Amino acid sequence: MATERFWELVGALLAFGLGLAALILSRGLPQMEGGYPGPALFPGILGVLLVCCGLGVFLGALLQAGHSRGVAVEGRKGLVNTLGVLLSLGLAPVMLARLGLIPTAVAYALFACLLLRARWQEVLAVGVAMGLFVYVVFMRFLGVQG
Amino acid sequence: MSFFSPEALLALLLGSLYGAVFGAIPGLTATLALSLAIPVLLFLGPYVAMAAIIGITSTAIFAGDIGSVLVRIPGTPASAAYTEEIYDIGQERSPAYALGIASIPSAIGSLIGLVFLVLGSLALVWLAKQFSSFEYFWLVLLGIVSGIFAVPSLLKGAIAFGIGMLLATIGYDPALGHPRFTFGQPNLLGGIDFIIALVAFFGVSEVLEHLFHGSSRQEFRRLERLARGSSVFREFFVETWRLCLREKWGLWRSSVIGTFVGFLPGAGSDIAAWICSNFRRMRGGTKEQITLEGTTANNAAVAGAWIPAMALGIPGDTLTAILLGMFLAMGITPGPELFNKYSSLVVQIYLAFFLASVVIMPFGGYLSALIVNALLKIPMRALMGMVLGLCVVGTYAVNNNPFDLYLLAILGALGFVLRQGGFPIGQVVLGMILGPLLEQHFMVSMIKTHWSFASFFERPVAILLALANALLVALMLGIRYQQWRRLNRLRMLASLAKPEE
After folding, report:
1. Where is the DUF112 domain positioned along the sequence (chain B) (predicted)?
2. Which of B92, B203, B258, B467 could form a disulfide with B391 if both were Cys (CB 3.0 to 4.6 A apart)?
3. Closest CA–CA distance from residue A70 to any residue of chain B (Å)
4. Is the residue at A146 inside a domain?
């Protein structure tokens, strides 16, 4: 419960930040003829909505966290694994250019399996199945270049 | 290419089996199945792709019951309403009989839903032809408002919709064609590809969730035999059919309610199943009756959700939001244009629903149960590895653009944070579809009338839709207020009871 409260706070701050960014960035957008609001109007409204609702959820989560035993993050190892996969996804375009489509797909499938502590037989089976599937379906059947 | 082409029929069959497998295995959802399939289906053309999508969506919901029967875990949220009952039926009588109840009434519910889909979509298209941007604005707003109220927390629903709509503002704006929030990046000028967002929100975030919680080590106990005593065929088909004949009024009622609930924007198959099974439960129904009504309703709701999606371009749930994204990616605008320009595709959709209901669900149901029972041997950690690999390949395949993989990582992280905080991801996706429609119809209306807000209340249908919006907000706020008061009363009673203990 405390973990969800923590992520609620993070989500609320994220919404608040996105709303604020939308408000600030939309100020630089042009107006329509006659001084009517143009492309900035809709993002501006969404910005206000996100700022207000983000603040509401943040305060609500803080109040409820006060009633409970506080805010904590459980599963540090899980968080490290999650961040590891996210960071590795940032490398995907480079891997794709250097290694090609099949090795990249297989590498990600194996990486996730290993982080989830799969047995080596399972890892091997996933690697072979992934490679075959990508080759047959994506490269041969659909003609995806890679 | 026509519906009766071997490619389309094969797509329907393979889509059904694929949907059944994803729907049945706990932890894999219909939305995830569709998200991973979309990058492949995009290449196959509308006829084949639609056949496959109908196969996936129509069977994934009913296949959720297979997980309930085999391992007491609902494969999809739509099956959660009667999991206990259907599992008990499987244990007390036979798994084949329980799977029959999951399959035959689902097919009947889907068939009745199809009748409403044909009649409802044709009637709505006729009505939609009279619509201008003012009516569409109110209609889209109705979809957004009901989508927000469909979530237990209003603020979280609004945030999810807000984020989805904000993501959709990236790229050229609909009024002046001016680029917004692109940060000089040419890859963002066309906006965030809906399919990439879909793969990130449902695929990557699912894998991240498993990594974070480390919950992939669950093992499922498989069934050794599907029937006891009498034959599987007799239990699966004959006995279930007898039950359906005995409970024909319950079937009708839950089909009609299910279709109606599915038709409402924001409400989906799970709500339909809860309403119908709870209704029967409150009236002291047997386990068979509760299961039958729940499973009929959630499948009828699938067809119901397609009515506004096809006729008006307004998604009823996440699955139809994905369907609309698929239509748009193929250059097809849902609504009257779909019925005018692609009438053969519309007929194909109806026929595919018919085949999925009459053939796939009853006969494929049995086959799927056997396949799923075998597949339960594959551990979740291996499946999640495959899902991540497919997310990477699928994202790249959409545009052959490596830049999309950066978006996959960013949106995957966003989806993960939102999921962990209990923010509904489905609403983000709905926001991405409905946001641009809302802005477009609003800006067109404003430009047409030189920014006269009164013009939104000048046409009779527009006034009716505006009133429907106001009524919905008032009604839902009233219900929420009553729930809040009841909860407070219960809390007070609980605090009074404590000292006595």
Report:
1. 9-430
2. B203
3. 15
4. no
Distance CA B383, CA A133 (A): 14
Q: Which residue has the tokens 């430009």?
A: B447
Q: Is B163 on the interface with A (CB under 8 A)?
A: yes
Domain membership of residue B164 (yes or no) is yes
SS3 B171: strand
User: How many distinct structural domains can be found in chain A?
Assistant: 2
Interface of A with B in 31-90 (CB under 8 A): 32, 34, 36, 38-39, 41-43, 46-47, 49-50, 53-54, 56-57, 60, 75, 77-79, 81-82, 85-86, 89-90
Q: Which residues of chain B, if any, have pLDDT below 70?
A: 1-4, 27, 215-230, 265-267, 369, 372-373, 376, 498-501
Let me know if residue B477 belongs to a domain.
no
What span, in angstroms and rounded, lies between the C-alpha atoms of B367 and B370? 5
- Nearest CB to B417; choose among A10, A38, A130: A10
Burial class (CB in 10 A: 0-12, 13-18, 19+), B353: buried
A132 and A89 inside one domain: yes
Range of B58's domain?
A: 6-458
Residue B200 falls inside a structural domain: yes
Give the total residue count for chain A. 146
- Give residue A7's domain range: 2-67
What domain count does chain B have?
1
Question: Per residue in A107-140, pLDDT tens?
Answer: 999 999 999 888 888 899 999 999 999 998 888 8
